[in-house]
């Protein structure tokens, strides 16, 4: 039989020509965010295919289960209750989260009222999900308003400790130790180092300046922290979904309680959008359709996220954990192998800096990477408006250039174009819009997981390396190891 002639896939420019309503259909607004997906290859057919796939994969049921507190994390036999932290979950989960938040508020109020003396700084110790969220919040929103000097400490490297404590005065620093499990090696080692730092500075009662945030209060108690200074959060709140819980206490201290509440309200608004908007206009779901298309149909194994706003410079690293730890899996939630790619590598940086470093590959490289620009319409009042105008124009110019390309007789100077991007524009960067933005990414991750049939709430992949490191730290027996690793250990003398 002769080969059927293949219909060429339309380019982005051709899609705009063919679909007069393209921009209006693919530029969505919700919870203070404008999300323009029109420069992706999503078209009617792909959206319909996505909706059919969502039906086939039981997306509606999975989404209901998330919001009604059913078990969505089957491998660990529990619900995912981060949505309840912002009032969107099952009533009993919301009630429990509210009680815990009231306790947290009482502690924040007490600290502000001087119950811990004159506090001028916070040393927040935690790693992974116990630090990336609070660091993003404080960096994004606390630049002008933070009343405290806040430092985040995660790495076990002593150099990180030295740098973190440098601007802090031990006598007036509150130490927040955040760890869901309260067993994490780095966090416990840094906690011990912080105690030593307080002690050697002559602080009479070092533990009196410590707050623990954990899902395992007994483990925190065992380290000697008083019950009155332990803030508990639920087992159902995954680390990378935990900034809404008491893990956010550092942000609440730095930004003020009202700001923390507004953050939760912004996230709740995005929860409502994700839960109730039709599929064709559902931001996280449409974004997931585009993600699946690029990863599975076009072989794009990466997604570049570029914040065209210095205040959002930590967003790419926050999203790396959220997306790669959630969906970087190769089996379904039933344990069946998945025979196509799952999560792309999330990477990125800050615009305009990244334009002068990595955009060459985005415009002319052989690897096509969908790009996401995140920008904020309004600058801060005291920012130079002309700088801000140039910043935004640069972001938009990059998206246009990626799509339109430029022909040239000189191949070195030719741009193929037809390279996809999406743009998220916030009206302004405030707690509410940042809450909505982060919740948007959570739900996009969840929607991808549902379309793939995987459980986004466990992370067994991180265990093996930790186990081997722990084993080596306890017992120098290297016999079971490969020759390369043995040689490295010997050479480093560790
Ligand atoms: O909060 P902790 O229990 O200390 O865990 C901190 C982090 O470490 C683990 O290795 C996981 O990869 C992360 O998901 C988690 O957020």
UniProtKB/TrEMBL annotation:
It comes from the Bacteria. Its main location: cytoplasm. The active site is at 325 (proton donor), 356, 466. Keywords: Cytoplasm, Gluconeogenesis, Glycolysis, Isomerase. InterPro entries: G6P_Isomerase (IPR001672), G6P_Isomerase_C (IPR023096), Phosphoglucose_isomerase_CS (IPR018189), SIS_dom_sf (IPR046348), SIS_PGI_1 (IPR035476), SIS_PGI_2 (IPR035482). Pathway: Carbohydrate biosynthesis; gluconeogenesis; Carbohydrate degradation; glycolysis; D-glyceraldehyde 3-phosphate and glycerone phosphate from D-glucose: step 2/4. One of its GO terms (molecular function) is isomerase activity. It is found in: Cytoplasm. Its EC number is 5.3.1.9. It catalyses: alpha-D-glucose 6-phosphate = beta-D-fructose 6-phosphate. PANTHER family: GLUCOSE-6-PHOSPHATE ISOMERASE (PTHR11469:SF1). NCBIfam families: PRK00179.1. Belongs to the GPI family. This is Glucose-6-phosphate isomerase. The gene is pgi.
């Amino acid at each position: 039989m002769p080969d059927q002639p293949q219909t060429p896939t339309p380019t982005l420019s051709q899609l705009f020509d063919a679909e007069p309503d393209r921009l209006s259909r693919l530029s969505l607004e919700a919870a203070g965010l404008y999300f323009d997906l029109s420069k992706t290859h999503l078209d009617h057919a792909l959206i319909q295919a996505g909706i059919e796939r969502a039906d086939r994969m039981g997306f509606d049921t999975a989404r209901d289960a998330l919001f009604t507190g059913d078990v969505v994390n089957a491998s660990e036999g529990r619900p995912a209750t981060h949505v309840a932290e912002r009032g969107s979950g099952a009533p009993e989960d919301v009630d429990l989260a509210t009680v815990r938040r009231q306790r947290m508020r009482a502690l924040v109020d007490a600290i502000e009222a001087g119950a811990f003396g004159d506090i001028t700084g916070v040393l927040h110790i935690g790693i992974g999900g116990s630090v990336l969220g609070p660091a993003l919040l404080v960096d994004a929103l606390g630049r002008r308003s933070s009343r405290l000097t806040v430092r985040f400490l995660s790495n076990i490297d002593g150099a990180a400790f030295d740098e973190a404590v440098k601007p802090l005065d031990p006598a007036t620093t509150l130490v927040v130790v955040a760890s869901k499990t309260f067993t994490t090696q780095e966090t416990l080692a840094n906690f011990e180092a912080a105690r030593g730092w307080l002690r050697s500075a002559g602080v009479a009662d070092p533990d009196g300046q410590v707050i623990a945030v954990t899902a395992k209060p007994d483990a925190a108690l065992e380290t000697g922290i008083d019950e009155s200074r332990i803030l508990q959060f639920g087992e159902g709140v995954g680390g990378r979904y935990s900034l809404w819980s008491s893990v956010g206490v550092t942000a609440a201290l730095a930004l003020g309680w009202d700001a923390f509440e507004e953050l939760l309200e912004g996230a709740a608004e995005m929860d409502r959008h994700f839960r109730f908007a039709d599929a064709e206009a559902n931001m996280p779901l449409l974004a997931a359709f585009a993600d699946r298309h690029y990863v599975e149909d076009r072989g794009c194994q990466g997604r570049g996220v570029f914040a065209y706003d210095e205040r959002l410079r930590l967003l790419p690293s926050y999203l790396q954990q959220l997306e790669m730890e959630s969906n970087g899996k190769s089996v379904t939630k039933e344990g069946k192998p998945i025979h196509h790619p799952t999560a792309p590598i999330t990477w990125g940086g800050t615009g305009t800096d990244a334009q002068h470093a990595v955009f060459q590959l985005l415009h002319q490289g052989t690897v096509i990477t969908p790009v996401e620009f995140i920008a904020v319409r309004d600058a801060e009042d005291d920012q130079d408006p002309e700088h801000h105008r140039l910043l935004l124009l640069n972001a938009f110019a990059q998206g246009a250039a990626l799509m339109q390309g430029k022909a040239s007789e000189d191949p070195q100077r030719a741009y193929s174009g037809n390279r996809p991007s999406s743009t998220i524009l916030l009206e302004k960067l405030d707690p509410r819009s940042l809450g909505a933005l982060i919740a948007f990414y959570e739900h996009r991750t969840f929607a991808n997981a549902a379309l793939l049939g995987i459980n986004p709430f466990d992370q067994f992949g991180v265990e093996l390396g930790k186990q081997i490191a722990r084993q080596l730290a306890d017992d120098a027996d290297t016999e079971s190891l490969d020759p390369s690793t043995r040689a490295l250990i010997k050479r480093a003398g560790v």
